Amino acid sequence: MKWKQQIHGMKAYQPGKPIEEVKKMYGLDEVVKLASNENPFGSSPKVKAFLQQGETNHAIYPDGYAQDLRTAVANHLGVKETELIFGNGSDDLIAIITRALLYPGVNTVMADPSFSQYWHNAEIEGAEVRKVPCIEGRHDLEAMLEAIDENTSVVWVCSPNNPTGTIVTDAELQGFLKQVPSDVLVVLDEAYIEYVNDPAHENTLKYFRQYENVILLRTFSKAYGLASFRVGYGIAQEQTIAKLDPVRAPFNNTILSQKVAAIALEDQAYIEHCREANEKGKQQFVTWCEKQGLHYYPSQTNFVLFEVKADSNTVFEEMMKKGFIIRSGAALGAPGYIRVTIGTEEQNAKFLSLLEEVLYEQGVLA
Ligand SMILES: *Cc1c(COP(=O)(O)O)cnc(C)c1O
After folding, report:
1. What predicted TM-score, i.e. pTM, was given to this entire model?
2. Cβ neighbours of residue 329 under 8 Å, at least 6 residues apart?
3. pLDDT tens for residues 281-337?
4. Domain ranges of the chain
C-alpha cells in the first residue's frame, strides 16, 4: 500500500509495562507501577463518589465543545472560554498542533531529552526535527534560539521537563519569548505544573496574553489522577485556538471524562494534599541518592531521574522481577539513569531498599 514514507520503520510508543502482565510474567502477587507519573493516590474522593452513582447516558455523543468543563476551567484559571481547547489527553493536543503546523520542508525545535511525542508526531508529518541537548537536564534556551530559522514552525518547551524534572525559570522564559520570531508557535507543555514549588517559576498564564505565539498545555492525567480518562487542554489567544479547533476530532473527550475532570478541578484541597505528599516522597529519593552518592536531577515533578552507575535496562529488568515497574533511562534518552515516579511513602521506602539490593548485586554499592 501507499504508506507515507515517514512511517516506514517507525515503532509504536513503548509504554511502561502493565501491572497485570508483569504479575503473570514473574508470578508476583503485588506489582507497583512507578513508570508513568500517575498520581499514586488516585483522584479526588469526589470523583469516586460521582462514579459510583453512575447515571450517565452513554448512548449519546458527548458535547464536542465540552461546555461545562470549559466553563469550569475558564473560571478556575481566569481565562475566556474561547481561549481554551480540549484534547483526548494533552497527547491529542500535541498531535493537533503538529498536524496544523508541521509538514515536509519546515522544522521544529525541542530539547533533548524531552517528551518523545514532540518528535514522534513531527516525524509522522515529515518535518525536520531539531533536538537541542539539555545542559544538566535543563533546556538550553540560547541554543534553542540559535536552532530557530525561517523554516521553523514550532518550538517545544517542556517545563517541568519530562524526563529530567527540571524547570525553565521565569527569567529564562521571559528572555526566550522576547527573541522567538512572532510567527513561530511556542508550546509550553506544563503537564506537571501542579507539582511545581520553586519560586523561580512564576505564573506562566501571563505569557499567552503577552504573546500571540504561545500555547500552554496542561492535563488531568498527572496530579489530578485521571490518566485513564484522557483529558488535557491548551490555553492560547482566541485566534490561535480558532486555527487549531478545526483540526481537532469532533468528539475527542467522553461524557464521563468531561464530568470527572470538572469535579476533580473543584477539589483543589485534594491537589494541595497530593502536592505535599509528593514533596515528602521526593525527599525520600533525594536523601537516598545523596547517601549513595548517585547523581539526580532536581525535580519539580512527581518523578525523579537519577543515576544508577549500571546498565539502566538491567536495573529496570531486575526491579521488575521484584515487583516494581519503572522506566529505564536508556528508553528516554538518559542511559545510565532510571526515571521513577514518586509513590506513596511506603512504596518509595520499599522501592529504595530493593534498589539497594539490585545495585549491590550489580557491584555499584558495596
Ligand atoms: C504525561 C505527559 C503528557 C501527556 O499527558 P496526557 O494528557 O495523558 O496525554 C504530555 N506532556 C508531558 C511532558 C507528559 O509527561
Report:
1. 0.96
2. 163, 305, 312, 335, 336, 337, 338, 339
3. 999 999 999 999 999 999 999 999 999 999 999 999 999 999 999 999 999 999 999
4. 5-43+269-362, 46-266
Q: How far is the CA of 116 from the centre of ligand 1 (A)?
A: 10
- For CA atoms 43, 46, 47, 53, the dihedral sign is positive
Ligand 1, pocket-test mutation among 221, 231, 257, most atoms within 8 A of CB: 221
Instruction: Give the burial string for 292-329 (b: 16+ CB within 10 Å, else e).
Output: bebebbbbbbbbbbbbbbbebeebbebbbebbbbbbbb
In which element (H, E) is residue 157 found? strand 152-158
pLDDT at 16 over 80: no
State whether residue 222 is helix, strand or coil. coil
| Length of the chain (residues) | 366
88/253 Cα distance (integer angstroms): 6
For 5-43+269-362, CATH gives: 3.90.1150.10
Q: Which grid cell sits at 160?
A: 517541568
State the distance from the centre of ligand 1 to the C-alpha of 230, rounded, in angstroms.
10
Q: Is 359 in the pocket of ligand 1 (CB under 6 A)?
A: no
Q: Which residue has the cell 526566550?
A: 176
Cα–Cα distance measured from residue 97 to residue 115, given in angstroms and rounded to the nearest whole number: 15
Regarding beta strands 107-112 and 152-158, do their DSSP bridges make them parallel or antiparallel, or are they unpaired?
parallel
> What is the CATH T-level fold of the domain 46-266, as seen in this structure?
Aspartate Aminotransferase; domain 2 (3.40.640)
